[in-house]
Amino acid sequence: QRLVKRMEKKLQEGQGKVLPTGSPGKVGFCDLLKDRIKGSLDIIDPYFCVESINLIDSIVPNCDIKIIGGKKGPTGISPDLDNKLVTFRQKLKSLQYGFLDIKVTVHDRWIVTKDRAWFLGTSLNGIGEKRESHVIELTGSDYQSLRLSFEKWWQVCEQNSQVRQYDFIRKIEWN
Question: Are strands 40-45 and 17-19 parallel, antiparallel or unpaired?
Answer without folding.
Answer: unpaired
